[in-house]
């Protein structure tokens, strides 16, 4: 039944996931049957990463792209709306994006 499977499914968002550790975290999560929102600040890079995952055999149902720049409030609001509307909940947030928030001056 669709309702039951939606209720028991787990959903994750990974930030900065178009490459490196973030992309690998996406792979690992999907290998556990978790639905992953692969996010990237650059849409083209993010879509390429999703395609790479699909090409490696990961099911279409387990990975979806959404743009997210963690330093842009409008972008964050858009992702929140997307998750609320599409899944109604979020189980896991992996804030991997390489941004410290600190500005270092020499
Ligand atoms: N690799 C290590 O040995 C190591 C060790 C300790 C901690 N870490 C931490 O682990 C995390 C991932 O490391 P990594 O080696 O995989 O880094 P990476 O290959 O440099 O990847 C960083 C990711 O963060 C994204 N990003 C940067 N600023 C962003 C923003 N404002 N909004 C959204 N995404 C943003 C990058 O997007 P673009 O491609 O668009 O730049 C990229 O996808 C980082 O937080 C890093 O500090 C890594």
TrEMBL record:
Gene Ontology molecular function: oxidoreductase activity
UniProt keyword NADP present: yes
GO CC, any one term: membrane
InterPro entries in the cross-refs: NAD(P)-bd_dom_sf (IPR036291), SDR_fam (IPR002347)
UniProt keyword list: NADP, Oxidoreductase
Homology family: Belongs to the short-chain dehydrogenases/reductases (SDR) family.
Protein name: (+)-NEOMENTHOL DEHYDROGENASE
Organism: Salix koriyanagi
Biological classification of the source: Eukaryota, Viridiplantae, Streptophyta, Embryophyta, Tracheophyta
